[in-house]
Amino acid sequence: MARLTAAARRKALINDIARTNFERVMNNATQMAIILIGVVVAFIAIREAQVILAPVFLAILIGLVFGPVADMMENRGIPEGVSAGLVVLLFLTVIIAGGALFYGPLSEWAERIPVIWARLQTEMRNWQEPLATIGALQEQVKSVFGGDATMEVSVQDGSTVTGIALMAPALLAQVLVFLVSLYFFLATRENIRIATLSLCFSRRMRWRTAHVFRDVEQKVSKYLLTISMVNVGVGIVVTLLMWAIGMPSPILWGALAAVLNYVPFVGQAFMALILFLAGLGTGGGLGAAMLPVGLYWAVNFVEGNFVTPNLLGATMTVNPFLIFLSLTFWLWAWGPIGGLIAVPSLLIVLSVITHILPVRELAPRKERRLVAQKTRRDVVEAEPVAPPPEPPAAVTSPPRKRPTRAKAAPAH
């Protein structure tokens, strides 16, 4: 009787567990835990492989921007390797020209650093009384909570020249990896695409993968080209405004505004801080320091709310919270380079997710037609080539027998 009771209880327990889906919940929790561990490991690997992955990813993004230029050269009969080399030289020319544009104003402001520091100290003396009040309040809070710990600040003696000398080999290695990756990506991007499509097992998978390639290339290229034009316009407007209010080196501030505008949120905040310090060091007080900051924020407000959304359109509009999350992750992982690739990487991820989980397309009909034509061509090129048919084996026919004539019957 006791055994029957135990068996009945065991059966009832099994039925209760089945009714509550306990095993299914545990299996789902196990799978989610494995996925979470994999994501954490991937994040750590991305952070630790910054020296190699960061220049490679940046080279791919720059290659997507300069890809149409290489296509124009290849359509005119220039070999792929030569066109890729010319594009790399063009990019280096743009970088060198930008560096020459920054060099003069930066050297001039480097000479003004002692004067600016003296003016900043003068302004800080005016804030001495409010800071002293805050310090007295802090001491009162410590006395109330019984805290008598003191803060010790130690300054380590380090040489800036030594730090730069130690960082130079790593920096040169990253620049070399970037240039080599950019060249080979431009020279072999079509082969990479066709080889990836050839790995797909079915025609439907090849079609979807080709759409992902074309959508990513179109979105990233359009975004970077549009943002580059917008940033140039922002730089010109900031230069004119700084010149109008009498800020020294207005070209420097316009160039900095154009470059830092590639990094959402963080770049604008850093630019405002630079303008505040420059205005405080060269102007006549707090009001003079806030004037360039206010003008810059006005330009940034118009650009972010009216100019860029109208130029990019609805298909390129991304949730600002997703941009903030992507920017936070990539800045944590790769620093300034991560800030540059934050939005393009988000566009790539969203394009892949969109084709895995299809949604209603909002792109114009003309763009969809062009993407479909390019996708059809890629799918055809990635079709596996069937081996030539083997020649049929020679068939030997048996020897033909001669017909035998019937013998005539003997006459009687």
**Chain-averaged pLDDT:** 78
Stretches where pLDDT falls below 50 for ≥5 residues? 147-160
N-to-C SSE series?
HHHHHHHHHHHHHH
User: What is the number of beta strands?
Assistant: 0
Rg over CA atoms, rounded to whole Å, is: 35 Å
Can you put this structure into words, describing what you see?
It is built from 14 helices and no strands. 20% of the residues are buried. The radius of gyration is 35 Å and the shape is globular. The protein folds into two domains: 15-45; 49-125 and 170-381, no CATH class. The protein has 412 residues and is mainly α. The protein starts with a helix and ends in a 31-residue tail after the last helix.
Tag the structure with descriptive keywords.
2 domains; mainly alpha; globular; 412 residues
Give the helices and strands, then pairings.
Blueprint lengths: L1 H18 L2 H27 L1 H26 L4 H32 L1 H14 L1 H18 L14 H39 L4 H42 L5 H11 L5 H17 L3 H27 L7 H15 L1 H21 L8 H17 L31
Helix pairs in contact: 3-4, 3-7, 3-8, 3-13, 4-7, 5-10, 7-8, 8-9, 8-11, 8-13, 8-14, 9-10, 10-11, 12-13
Give a nutshell description of this structure:
The protein is an all-alpha fold and 412 residues long. 79% of the residues lie in helices and 0% in strands. The protein contains 14 helices and no strands.
